[in-house]
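Forum: Protein Structure Q&A
Topic: Joint prediction for protein chains with partners

I've read a bunch of threads here and the consensus seems to be that you should model interacting components together rather than docking separate models afterwards. I'd like to see that in practice. Below is the full input, 1245 residues plus whatever partners are listed. Could one of the regulars post the assembled result?
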Amino acid sequence: MKRYILFILLFTIVFAGNAADNKGKIEVPLRFDRYYEYDEVVEALTVLHEAFPELTKLDLIGKSEEGRAIYALTINNKETGDELSKPGVYVDGNIHGNEIQAGEVCLYYANMLLTKYGENEKITKAVDNNAHYIIPVVNVDGRYHFFEDGNTPSTNRGLRVPRDDDRDGLFDEDAPDDLDGDGSICQMRIKDPQGAYKLDPEDNRLLVRVKPGKKGEYSLLGYEGIDNDGDGRFNEDSEGYLDPNRNWGSNWMPNYVQRGAGNFPLSGTGIKAVHEFMASHPNIIIGYAFHNTGGMWLRVPAEKSTEIPSSDVAAYDVIGNEAIKITPGYVYMPAYDLYPTYGDADSHMFFIHGIYSFVGELFMRDQETYTTKKSAEKEDAMEAIMRGSSTERSREQLKFNDNVALGELYKDWKPFTHPVYGEIEIGGWVKMSSRLPHPFMLQDLVHRNASVVLLSAGHTPELTIDVFEVKEIGKNLSQVRVRIENTKGLSSMTAQAFKDKLYKLDVLKVTGGKVVAGGKLSDIRLNKVSYKENKPEVQFFAMPGHSKVEYQFLIEGKGKVTFSYESQKAKNAVTTVEL
Amino acid sequence: MIKKLFSFLLLGVLIFSVDRATAQSEPTFDKYHSNTEVQQILKSLSGNSGAKLHTIATSPGNEPITILEIGSNLEDAPAIFVGANFEGDNPLSTEGALYFSKMLLDSINYTKNVKWYIMPQPNPDAAAGFFAPVKHGLTVNSYEINNDADDAVNEDGYDDLNGDGFITKMRVADLQGTLVLSKADPRILTNAKKGESGIYKIYDEGLDNDGDGKYNEDGEGGINVGISFPHLFPKTNKNAGIFPGQTPEVYGIMRFIYDHPEIAMVYTLGNSGFCSVPPKGGRKGGANMESIKIPSRYAKRFGVDASKNYTMNEVIEMMKKLVPPGMEVTPSLVASFLGLGAAVNPLDDDLKFYKSYSEDYKKYLEKKSFNTKTLDPAPAKDGSFELWAYYHLGVPSFSMNLFTVPKVVEEKKKDNEALSMDDVEKMSTEDFIALGETKIDTFLKANNAPEKFYAEGILKMLDSGKFTPKQLVAIMKKMPKSEKEDELSERDKALLAWSDKHWEGKGFVEWQKVEHATLGEVEIGGFVPYLETTPKAELIDSLAKTQLPWLLQLSKKLAQFSIEKEEFTELGDGVYKLELYIKNKGKFAYPIAMGKRNSQPAPIIIILDGDIQFLQGIKRTPLGSLNGNQIKKLTWIIQAKKNQDIAVKIESAVFTDVVKQIKIGG
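Posted by a regular:
Agreed with the consensus. Here's the joint model:
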């Protein structure tokens, strides 16, 4: 087996040298008509950084289990302010090694911001008003191995932390094997007069189940592979499995409760590095983690026993309800509606870092159409996962493969001599199918999804502060009324973070005069004020999206008085008045 | 080969042990050691042969987190991890861990085939609080936390207003107070009874340093290492941090332990005491794996009734039909798919050993004439190390608290006076019934039994065998203690007596008037910090010497595997049936029930090596679980040449491998 892999490796290296020429050089603007391998992602980030040195910063934030570098690209116009002073927009992708188009969405977002800066008004605003943090590939080992090794569309999700899945004392010793060396783990089938399947008369690449009691022609043998460890089972202990998106600290549960959790929170070195990156950027207010597949915008909570404040749901809705229009066919819902998860990135962002977090589940396979009919009712995502595809739909997908996708998504069945089974056939959907759009559809996918991120940048909190009334009420005493307004849809601080006292609350400070009393005005006309008993010159609060709040202060003395609003995530605002 | 290697190692140990007795300076236990001294002692102990010091993390206060390995000369041996003083407020337990290390190094009896990892000081930042000029029982490290989320960090901690070096309490006469002076002892405040108005309010000693109207709400630090582990992580408690393992000590400890799968048992020295009181159960919300409800959205797909309960095996069968071929359905997959959640109560089979060993431990202490009439150890806290060790590692986890304050023993009662719960607990059902209704009623009344408990009913139930006097006492102990009128709680009584007797009364600061900046006239006083956990240093040696050997005894109960017997039956033509009898010679099951539930402990594999064809069975066979003192038979049908030697091996990442050469055909 080892020799075989070596051979494949050699072959790949030779072939890669050759193929690079056809793929074209990596230069700015980046191209999105193909997928970048891990090294190429690093190169793409480097060329973006080199082309826009004033607007970007490229940080190596940590290393993976196999020592690969994880990079974060920061985009910010320093001339309009320090990055930490602006609301941060965070985007990552490819935490599951096989979900590679998530990395492309991130690269596209970076490419779009940088190449259209100064040309497009929306983009220019976003780069001037926000700091953007982009980590295209979180699971760098996963992406590397997804390209490099034989895979199904769903393998190589996890981190490279060995685990004894079949509990035989050996680690990762029986993974699927790319028997025919084509880079994909496909299906194995065998001619079998006792089999439960026969060839589909309309498309003999497909197998259909025979009726109970009837004899078929074929049996399915599962994924391509051999019994590497001689335990009578195939492919039962492949790499990992540590699911990096169950390894986060918030609401983490051990492996026997949440499969893939890993031994303890943030045990993945790259996951810990990404956490630390978030922690060192407390200005981030909105975050995206891109995945595939199914066409979904998921928000917290990720399991049902947790509830989030209604004003946070409202803030989420501001984005979510637009996102589903930008990405037709996608649904917007709480993550627990899909299935409950513990230790996921979106909960970690929201509950630990106070970030409005979305999971973007990219791509819907039902976009692969080959019909004159209007697209059918969208399948319930769970339904699709549980049931697989119908024969009719499979035929259509094959036609799509043949006539639209250049036949690149499906491998025709070919005979193979298997060391255990003897004469079999190998074929089926290849690794670059099913969960990934064919490159011709990639441009549309990356643009629409990056547009959602851009839209949310436009909704990051923007605060104005204004003294709207000054009244002398005594010889040396003034009554000053101040209004603070958040003109955007996202809160200056999530209500959850405010409730949990997660970090320094938003604060309004009065300096320059002696504040005798001060508090929130609940009714301007009737002068209803809830005066704060201690330290009235410092008022703590948070500003929900599209909200305003008024404060009233009784200030002793004359001269210049300053009112400053400070927030960890929104930009600070200051105003002064002369008494 | 292994045996030979062993005796060679043994020889090495013996030679060295002579050497080290003279070469190393011996730590003494006549004082509590500061962080620096603890590290010095560990360094010196690590100079012994077979010892090694690991530095696994640095605390936020820049102190090293170290683990002393004893038995580093052993390869492929099971290990026991000993941690102490996770909360930092129990200096005695740190001394206990050092003492324990010395015991191990002084004798070869416990390091022959078991390795030890000892961590005396996992929370050094907090432990430093015991040596600080002003003591308040610090449990948090120096991690920077803005507890009140205002615009300053650590700006409102305690203040030693009376300058006595202790943070105690401030009592303030207040019209809205809810407390009154206890009639039994005016030093103690109690809640005002219904219809009585309170006189006092109580605060921790300190000022409102940041002028926000609150006292001491944002002191220095930090995270309490002892409540920051992932089992039942107390997320609403600021002192736990915001997620488990946020602080480097805890992260480093978890990393170290998972990097050492040979750890087969865990001991914790600190405030809880699983050695004497089994870990508590009765927590709501745990998943019952044998009674699973299928959510309606899946029930339809499975074709089952959402209102019925199913066993785990039934659900596995349901799911098998729906997953892709080749995919294995395990209980942990089912649990995660259906969101069944974590175990939160000790599993029944494990409670059996906890109970039986706690009884043995009591007998052990009684034999040593050790006073066991002391206050109960504190229950293990949510997020604690000892709970995590049991629930997440799935290994036996024993905690020991080396000291609790003696209870005040009432003067010898006269014949007609009520029996105590301790008396009744020891009685047989017959003896208890023989007391008669009057005496039983007196007993019930004297011990605050709920009103529903009366002699007649109790007698009937005892008679029918529904429960024993011991169980009756257990129930009564669980009842909320209705404070007897005008009497101090057992704890206050014990602490006052302890202070008077052993600290010349200095364990309680007498209330003294002090003028407070914002509260006006207050009185400062109360129990001094560490009174409850930390006796005078001259007691360290005897407390450790009496109690710690129990942990050595427990260590002898670890699972241990052997090949008891092999049997060949010739089936003809070079085909044999081979039956192997594998025995767990230890007392503990491997894995224990929790280990079976979480599949965390590494598997034991039986390997057959040689020129053989397997007709039934495979080369590497997982043994599965095996209770203490039990034998499991494994069967293969193989084809091989007669009289040929094959190797049988018991292999695991935990225990020392066992290899036996056997001849085909026997």
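Chain B has four domains: 25-145+222-286+344-404+532-557, 293-338, 421-478, 561-663.
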